[in-house]
Amino acid sequence: MDKVLMKGNEAVAEAAIRAGLNFYAGYPITPQNEIPEYLSKRLPAVGGVFIQAESEIAAINMIYGASACGARVMTSSSSPGLSLKQEALSYMASAELPAVIVNMMRGGPGLGNISGSQADYFQAVKGGGHGDYRFLVYAPFSVQELWDYTILAFEKADEWRNPVMILGDGIIAQMMEPIVPQVPQLKTFDKSSWALTGAKDRPSRFIRTLLMAEGELEKHNWKLQEKYAKWKEKEARYETYFIDDAEIVIVSFGSAARIALSAIRKLRQEGLKVGLLRAITLYPFPETPLRELAQEIDRFVVVEFNAGQMVEDVRLAVNGMAEVHLYGRPGGCIVTPEEVYEALSKYCFAEKVIVKV
Fold first, then answer.
1. CB distance 310 to 251 below 8 Å
2. Domain 4-234 in CATH: superfamily?
3. Degrees, nearest 5: CA angle 212-215-217
4. Taking the domains of the chain in order of start, what are their residue ranges?
5. For residue 39, what is the enclosing H or E element?
6. Radius of gyration (C-alpha) of the chain in whole angstroms
7. Which of 10, 108, 172, 246 is the most buried (most CB within 10 A)?
8. pLDDT, tens digit, for every residue of 56-115?
9. pTM exceeds 0.85, yes or no
10. Neighbouring-strand partners of residue 75
11. Domain spanning 239-350 has what CATH number?
């Protein structure tokens, strides 16, 4: 198949259509605006429904309703827009409704700026709303992966009956790269046992998250936790580079991993044995491979574009078996490979971490 030059946001939008998206609701916010712009033209042309809602809160509740009726649904936003959606996202996780949620992160807190950031990690992987719930969270680091993981997100949302998040940022959203727009054989998921499609030929049913009977909510929560535990067994994804002989391992995700990899290649040309573990799923976090590496490696450096968030999960995974340090950049700025190279080379040569936060 021939390659096609696409912008990150447009790759997400077209991949969603190829994956069977038939209902989208959203509200404009930079740097994800090309997603609704693209879908506003393309989705109705293939028989789907596009709605620019009056607010982020309205958009996510439209998604809630459409998913409850069995549609394949998606919404997208950037950082503060996702904050406004959190209440309904918690409801959807409780109701076990499939949906794809895209967050192209921007700098924060507050309105911040429109540049790339990774400061929504906690919000995405710890449950940004109320209650004990989780999402599957994918962190692509190329336009090709935005395409691939958007399609996979729809499949996993239906498979697990759960919202799935694509966590990108302003860098990956706006970059353009050639991709191979392949679409795998899509699965067919039977939603007839739960979707609200009208009760003409069956008993009526309803979807609810208010569970007031004695012990009912706890029973439901244990059911959800069993599902999340299965994710840890089956859904954790990661990729390693130059690990076989590494003496220091960099841990990163998304655009930070891409930039760190460029710096690592340069360090290896200078004879430094540096490797990279890139987390592809942020939840479930790839804690097992990190724990195994910590039995051989005594130093890890986490590179992330925030003040230090994923570093906490790395420390939990390593569990005191190795040093874990941070190179963090929280300014909502575009960090260059040269800056990461300088920080890591000082650390490697001096055998001490250069923490920049």
1. yes
2. Thiamin diphosphate (ThDP)-binding fold, Pyr/PP domains (3.40.50.970)
3. 55
4. 4-234, 239-350
5. helix 34-45
6. 21
7. 172
8. 999 999 999 999 999 999 999 999 999 999 999 999 999 999 999 999 999 999 999 999
9. yes
10. 101
11. 3.40.50.920
